[in-house]
Amino acid sequence: MADDGTGDLAAENDALGLALAAEHAAVWGYGVVGAALPAADRGTATGAEAAHRDVRDSLITLLAERSVEPAAAEGGYALPFPVLSPVDAAALGVVLEDGTSAAWVRVLDQAAERSTRELALEALTGAEVRAVAWRTAAGQDPVTRALPGLPAQ
Predict the structure, then answer these.
(1) Does residue 98 lie within any of the structural domains?
(2) Which of 4, 30, 94, 95 has a beta carbon 3.0–4.6 Å from 134's, enabling a disulfide?
(3) What is the mean pLDDT of the chain?
(4) Spatial distance between the Cα atoms of 118 and 20, rounded to a whole number of angstroms
């Protein structure tokens, strides 16, 4: 679809809002991941958190430019399991990246503008690259996904 204004920006904005919520959760979650890692390994979590902060901030700016009220971050988020070890931390990193991937696939599906598709593809690619590293650290197999962000078959 061309950037001619004929696309459904409301659906695109809704999908971007869901992606923003996933990015907020990822930023929060990486604090938990980092806390469960040895100090020497925290750089990976710090880098992932920074990447999600950058994407989050870009989304907030984009939505504000479109006069869409960006969703605020929650004060805290429920963890899917206790994070008591570095392996648990890596597994949580996988959950965080898979969560943002799913949100970005929805953005791709609903994107009306080329720039939105480009943003979604960049975010989805970054999330899958980080997820591969976390899956490796968590001892998960396979470490790659043929179609990141889509339900496993």
Answers:
(1) yes
(2) 94
(3) 94
(4) 16
